[in-house]
Design a protein that fits this description.
Blueprint (H helix, E strand, L loop, with lengths): L1 H16 L3 E2 L5 E8 L3 E4 L2 E10 L7 E10 L2 E9 L10 E5 L4 E8 L5 E9 L1
Parallel strand pairs: 6-8
Antiparallel strand pairs: 1-6, 2-4, 3-4, 4-7, 5-6, 8-9
């Protein structure tokens, strides 16, 4: 029975550490989320480069992925981090699809849904 419990605990630990953990805005440095120049990838789809700098160095965590969705004139982004030692799935940009050219406000969205303005984004 002891061996079964050890195996269950090990599997649980590996499973938990392999999934991304959503981070709130205060995880990042002031001014630590920066936006690059957006580029159209195809009509109605844009790639927006975004860089993240954490408030403190987190040597055991890596950015796992960044999601984006459009809500009115806002583009909401959220980042997840992982402690699993694997390659990041974040390519350095978010791709927003089904959106028209224009000016939007990029906002960071906490796991609890609270949003924080990052800055304007002009889609050509």
């Amino acid at each position: 029975m002891k061996h079964v419990m050890k195996i269950v605990l090990l599997i649980s630990a590996f499973t938990i550490s392999g999934y991304g953990d959503g981070k709130s805005r205060d995880f990042f440095a002031a001014g630590g989320i920066t936006i690059g120049a957006p580029a159209m990838s195809q009509p109605g789809s844009y790639k927006i480069p975004i860089e993240f700098e954490t408030k403190i160095v987190h040597s055991g965590q890596w950015i796992d992925s960044v999601s984006a969705k459009v809500s009115g004139s806002d583009i909401l982004v959220a980042a997840t981090f992982t402690s699993a030692n694997r390659k990041s799935r974040y390519p350095g940009y978010v791709e927003v699809k089904g959106i028209s050219a224009g000016t939007y406000t990029l906002k960071y969205q906490d796991p609890d849904g609270k949003t924080h303005p990052i800055g304007p984004v002009v889609l050509p």
